[in-house]
Putative molybdopterin biosynthesis protein (Halolamina salifodinae), 1262 residues
Amino acid sequence: MSDRKEFRDLTSPAKAHEAIASLDLEPEPETVAIADARGRILAERVDADLDVPGFDRASMDGYAVRARGTFGADEADPAVLDLVGEVHAGSEPDVFVDEGECAEISTGAVMPDGADAVVMVEKTDELGTEAVEIRTSVAPGDHVMPAGADIAAGQRALGPGTELTPREIGLLSALGKGEIEVRGKPTIGIVSTGDELVRPGEDLNSDAGQIYDVNSYTIAAGVEEAGGEAKLYPHAGDDMDVMEEALTTAAEECDLVLSSGSTSASAVDVVYQVIEERGELLLHGVSVKPGKPMLVGRLADSAYVGLPGYPVSALTIFRTFVAPAIRRAAGVPEPRTATVEGKLATEERYSEGRTRMMPVGLVENEAGETLVYPVDKGSGATTSLVEADGVVEVDADTEYLAEGEQVRVTLFSPSVRTPAVLAFGEDDPAFSRLLDRLKSSRFLSVGSREGLRRLRDGLPDAAVVAGPVRREVESVGLGSWKREWGLIVPEGNPAGIEGFGDLIDGDLRFVNLDTATGLRASADAELERLAAARDTDAAALQNAIDGYGFTLKAHESPARRVLAGEFDAGLGLRATAEKLGLGFVPVDSQTVRVRANPERVEKQGMKDLKAVLSGMEEVLADLPGFEPVDE
Amino acid sequence: MSDRKEFRDLTSPAKAHEAIASLDLEPEPETVAIADARGRILAERVDADLDVPGFDRASMDGYAVRARGTFGADEADPAVLDLVGEVHAGSEPDVFVDEGECAEISTGAVMPDGADAVVMVEKTDELGTEAVEIRTSVAPGDHVMPAGADIAAGQRALGPGTELTPREIGLLSALGKGEIEVRGKPTIGIVSTGDELVRPGEDLNSDAGQIYDVNSYTIAAGVEEAGGEAKLYPHAGDDMDVMEEALTTAAEECDLVLSSGSTSASAVDVVYQVIEERGELLLHGVSVKPGKPMLVGRLADSAYVGLPGYPVSALTIFRTFVAPAIRRAAGVPEPRTATVEGKLATEERYSEGRTRMMPVGLVENEAGETLVYPVDKGSGATTSLVEADGVVEVDADTEYLAEGEQVRVTLFSPSVRTPAVLAFGEDDPAFSRLLDRLKSSRFLSVGSREGLRRLRDGLPDAAVVAGPVRREVESVGLGSWKREWGLIVPEGNPAGIEGFGDLIDGDLRFVNLDTATGLRASADAELERLAAARDTDAAALQNAIDGYGFTLKAHESPARRVLAGEFDAGLGLRATAEKLGLGFVPVDSQTVRVRANPERVEKQGMKDLKAVLSGMEEVLADLPGFEPVDE
């Protein structure tokens, strides 16, 4: 590798912000129809260019008069005026009110010429059809809403930079604005690179190492959230000419070009070459984790930012450095509730000397305090996108954060809510169905053993624990059920397997589950039992099974490997075998328990979980091998 | 009027919520492309139906081996394996690794068949091109990220009801979902009624009492904000057949029909008749202010709600009763920051025995506390749409709210922000320009006198005061300028007017400004001066001017009436005369002062205002008759 690709001269985050702020992303204003204006930002001040209302409007039912003609009139000495016509709302007056005259008028109607006030009907009496007795005197303007009283022509109605919500749209409608000039949305071109990337919805050839393109759609959604317009460019691959073509086309058509995807050396080389030939590189490499390999520069007349390839890194860099610049260019204000304060639930050490954007999850305790825990599944994991709620920025000099330390979390979006229930533990189809019935929950499939460990440390609201348990953890039982487990084999059980004995004695390939899972704990216990019967030790039996040490983490995974013909048998549930149309050799049943953190049982989310658990019979009804347990 | 139209049997707000909740607005789920999925709500749980990664992936550069072949190997006693090929990221392995063999492999590449572990390159040495020395032993699975380690086929990925933000779109992309089933958006038909309504953008005939249709676009924007799809039906007028046709078409095509607009008796009659013939009326009239005349019912297979005609009433009723039902039908969660607590800045009395939805504005004091003040310009005013920030719900039994009382404000939308500066006072073109340079401000054009009164009561951050001032109010001067005022006359001054004297002595029609304005105060002072010179009193001179008592509120309004040929002269500014191409007879100059609330000068918004005021010379440069003043 060349020096360049190692990003030896890392730029500070502050300098990276400066570099991006120096780029010009701001598009021209545009004109939109009022029906499409919601959420847009006014480009310029809007003054009223007409009066609202547009005419002197009667604000009472009564008679339109010349005020002077009523002067001195009262109950004792009424004035008598000739009735010369009538005016209704929504029609043009066809009458002129002269001295000594009046016209009948209804609320909302246009004042007839000549008249300058309205006498309310309660203070009048008609004398036949041609005259009216007026029992009060009025001043000019009485009971008349003059044209422009709501807003008058020439008045400032809305300022530049105003976000158009239904209210502003109401005022613009009243002003008769059929269309309106708004801030343009910066156009952001997204060029994904990498031979191995396939667009979602297309067929994937995993055997050739293909993976779905995560960054294009994730970043496009982020661009739209920030007030930009995303434009996806055809997948560029690693072919130098194709990629150069995509980058330069995007630069011509967009205010900002983002590339992301492959981190392969050849792709990086092409980007460097294109930027250096046709633009300017302002910085390469920022001292943050994740996201070190970030490029900022200009490409033709466009701005350019190169994002890292791993999705979590790409989205973190995008949110931290690029989204604020898009918002500024679009005139969109920073979101209001984008941060939350909380206490760190576990200590955290780090010492790479880079600013760290630490992805974290949130959980609330009974007192409503927010606890914050790091989510670190490695940059390559896409699930951490949804298992984290935001990011804590940790200074490059901070090597240690203590448990209980107050931290500020920048939420991934203003709509992020702390999950009502946070559970860790065994992946189980029945529990998945329970979660579907809860409004907002998060479950981390870490296996029974790890779930219990985290419950002991006080982090989750609940743990899902299956099978035998080695150590006790203080908890409150919320509910339990049984599930049948055994060996999953090809349809029709062609090898005629009857149990673990056949795996030990025969020449069969087995696929196991991780030791953190409750299913594996039950399988280990079964081998202990067999070892005792055979007068040997369990380790010897494990060694005798080809593949006992080859473990997968998810409970359906062994079954799917059997389905793919890669193994003769795998550990799993009867429910999985039936779902996938495979054969099943029953071994035993194990109990799954939902165990609550004793300090969280009064949380609303936990009460909701308990309520949902009371409907367990219905949840289990069509799950083969599952049955309720009263404990 | 019939009994019915008086809404004698008013329903309680709680019962109105119940009636709307009993209607079914929920549409069928729909399928959208992943690129269009942002902001949508998942209709059903999404399970992974493939492993991510989709293949066993090398997580180090090195050699793919069978782990068994390395057992016992160490620095002292390395194993030697035959090198049989190489595998790169993004390509399909064309090699099988048998016992005693290995293959070169790069990070991210597919594990070749036969191999079950990777030895990192640092622990190896190539022996020529055909053999490799392995200086460590590895276990099966070492340095291999197994297929499904991120998320495995069969695992629950996202729950039903999840809002799709960029993060969820990232995970769905990783799972290869090109399209996704989401909750449908309820279709809301909006039928506006009323002969006098004209769509914004079309020509308005004010002489015939026409006004722009405010409700259709306002409510449509509110529908979209709540997660619905708005559909506008051609303007229905008051014609019975046309309106019946519009209502029944909307009912066939939509989940909910909203009608609003005319409150005329004939329109209400048609709605009643159509609902009763083709549907069911559940309630008419709710005990709330504003918004009493609200209808709830069914129309064919659709739900129906009739909104009041006045825009503020219509939007209040929509937000209070209809928007929550649309959100429920769309699966959209209630917005998080939709309320704010604050102290009432002024006492408030009310005793109509109805629940009151009191529109209020917000202002922050120096301590960051929120103060709340009622905004009541009457239901007919559209400007109160943008001058209020939210609504305080006041119980029907509460007749008095004390100053300082803590109230809860339901914001009009989660993006509502308390204005950085709240100013009251004289409408002035220079101050309007200053406001354009501030990020978020609110100015209420109430005239100099009323602005000073509110400043004395401690409500606004600042008051804009022009002309002579009768009483002193404790304040901090922020800046000032002069503006030239006089009589605005038709172009070329056809009547040869030279000053107020000509209005007093001649037969000319004059149009004045409201006594709350500083311009009027200066005009009154000028008449005092003339009266002294003529040895009479000012009242006599005022009476001698035809129209001195006919007043308008906005500073440009008299000029526009002169422009329309309705008057021979009007009170106004030189700047206005030049802007509108009118003649101008100068009388004098007056000083405009920006006076700060002494307890708010340290607010950030006020500091920003002060900074903007320092650039006054530039602001005034092209405003005729304006000049800076140092005081």
In short: Residues 1-7 of chain B have pLDDT under 50 and may be disordered.
